[in-house]
Design brief:
The structure is a homodimer of 209-residue chains. The first copy, chain A, is of the alpha/beta class and 209 residues long. Chain A is built from nine helices and nine strands. The first copy, chain A, folds into two domains: 8-79, Arc Repressor Mutant, subunit A (Orthogonal Bundle); 85-198, NAD(P)-binding Rossmann-like Domain (Rossmann fold, 3-Layer(aba) Sandwich). Chain A has a seven-stranded mixed sheet, sandwiched between helices. In chain A, strands 1-2 form a two-stranded antiparallel sheet. The mean pLDDT of chain A is 87.
Chain lengths: 209, 209
């Protein structure tokens, strides 16, 4: 069941199901849990929960529901907890550093394995996070079989960084630089335009006046 | 024409049109510019450009297109350049500080007027950005008629901050804390889950194996 692409909405609910399975179950609940019970605990629609779980696990047993431990493992596997995808981040400015310390990524199956900066010195942030110089970038990515890259450099260097990522085998790029990047076909590119999100909210707000 | 809610995609292209109007026009282009010419310069579909511009400006003149200066002003007005929406940000950790220095917001009509932190001391970041203590929050928002709030505090304090925002008249909230917030009906709430964006990309990547 692992090779399913689920919607972003489903993906967003999976960690919530995990939390219920790990934290909210008491002795009384027994070894099984039904979609109905999960829906109730999270204040979600039953049909939705059933659909989400079917995508990662299959149907529960009639009258019994899901075996809680099994379901937990299935969701964990789906989210990649058993094998976090290692990613590299390039650009250790404020945003880059914020992402480096963002705890949530691992809950969704990604671990930032290393951070790089165009500045050619090793920088130590806080206690231990190290930012490496770009001269080590290619060898790190190739040796680690890194497939996922995060770009948090400025507009001016983003394309160069992107090209270097593609060059050394990275297949999926998450871009925060406010510009368009050219990638060869076959490379997954996801642009994160924070200003646009805010503009959208502002636009709705202004239309209320 | 100002009270139109346009799609996020259209909103994202408007600053690009502005750039063309401001920077790419030469003497030879004359005082008018056609949707066709703009589309060509940006490598976009003509129909799309025509539709986008119609939403903010109306149709161009047959054979002539748009009066460039007028169109510039219309897009600027639409994006709110003539009256930036003032916003407040609460939570001056790494992410909050990254957003404070993010230049792109003003290009989309929003200006962070002040930043606050639960830490009750005034902090000065860099040269001049000041982070104020929460004790000044209510009076600042009320006096400034602030309607837009950005939450970059942790999960534990997000609901409290959200309640205080609503209490003092904020109508639209952009939430970065990884948790669900309860807001009264009528309040616009937009959750920004960065981990989910990354998870979505990772999910696509893993399905290729």
């Amino acid at each position: 069941m692992e090779k399913t692409t689920v919607s972003k909405a489903t993906l967003g609910r999976l960690p919530e199901y995990l939390r219920v399975l790990r934290e909210d179950l008491t002795e009384e609940d027994g070894p099984h849990i039904s979609a109905t019970a999960i829906a109730k605990k999270l204040n979600l629609g039953e049909v939705q929960v059933r659909k989400d779980l079917a995508a990662v696990s299959g149907a529960g047993k009639p009258k019994l529901g899901y075996e809680a431990r099994e379901l937990t493992e299935e969701i964990e596997r789906f989210l990649g907890y058993d094998r976090l995808t290692p990613a590299v981040l390039v650009g250790a400015g404020k945003l880059g550093r914020a992402l480096l310390q963002y705890k949530e990524f691992e809950r969704y199956g990604v671990k930032i394995a290393a951070a790089f900066d165009l500045n050619e010195q090793t920088i130590v942030i806080g206690d231990k996070t190290e930012v490496l110089p770009m001269s080590l970038f290619e060898s790190f990515c190739r040796n680690g079989h890194i497939r996922l890259g995060i770009i948090t450099v400025g507009e001016g260097s983003a394309q160069t960084v992107c090209d270097r990522m593609v060059e050394c085998g990275i297949e999926a790029i998450w871009n925060f630089a406010p510009c368009k990047l050219n990638v060869p076909s076959g490379i997954l590119l996801q642009n994160e335009n924070l200003a646009l999100s805010l503009a959208h909210l502002n636009n709705q707000l202004r239309n209320r006046n």
